[in-house]
Amino acid sequence: MLKTVDSKNQILVKYLASINSSVLTGVLPQKEAEGSSKASNAPKKKKHVGKALTMEEEFSSQSTEVERMIHDEEPNDDDIMVSFTDIQFGPREENVPGSLIMSERLAFHSKSYDYEIQKLHGVAKEHHELFVEQVTKMKEPVDLKIAKLKSELSKEVQKMEQNYTLLHGQVDVITTAIAMWLSLILSILISLKSIQKRILRCSKRWMNHYQVSRSLFLRLIFRINQQSLKRLFLN
């Protein structure tokens, strides 16, 4: 919206600068030259006795083309010259001295410029107020959504922290249980090794006892056999 107003302001300023330069340099359009020649050749008319229009009323009645060009598409140079020629050289300028026409023209231009600037300022202010209102309307739900999202995120973070502490406690319990199981298994292995050593010692002893007892038994059997053989031979 503000860009549109700025472009319209630029058109108006360019427009007014061209008219100002033409007025100050004394260069008049073809329409003015023809009107002045006709006015010099024609007989003098009686002055208009009716009620004179104010500058604002005359400008409002003659500036429809300018408003159309400002609010519609960008005008060309011909449209600008025609519309402002109508404003500069109206029927009020007939039978009026040139110096008065120039001073009146300058005063009229200054007032018309002020009027247009006030109008554009009002439009820009309106658009700015509408823009601010729309921004505030859009900002309120966005702020609410952001606050809601922040609260939800804080809740989720708290839940994650609680879950982390619980998980950390469970992991501590699991690690202590695993350490206890490992220590128990190690102690069992150590005891099994000691038992194995004892079993090996006992087996060695039993083997020694077995060898000794076997040898004794074999000797005893051999003696018995010898005695029985002697008896057999003697008989």
Helix and strand arrangement:
Layout: H1 2-25, H2 30-41, H3 55-62, H4 64-71, H5 77-88, H6 98-234
Helix pairs in contact: 1-6
How does this structure look, described?
Keywords: Membrane, Transmembrane, Transmembrane helix. The longest helix is centred in the last third of the chain and has 137 residues. Helix 1 packs antiparallel against helix 6. This protein has a domain of 140 residues. It contains six helices and no strands. The radius of gyration is 61 Å and the shape is rod-shaped. The protein has 235 residues and is mostly helical.
Would you summarize the structure shown here?
With 235 residues, the chain is an all-alpha fold.
Q: How widely separated are the two ends?
A: 152 Å
Quaternary state reads single chain
Average residue-wise pLDDT: 69
Please describe the biggest sheet, giving its number of strands, its sense, and whether it closes into a barrel.
none
The structural class is mainly alpha
Rg calculated over all Cα atoms:
61 Å
pLDDT < 50 runs, ≥5 residues: 22-66, 68-93
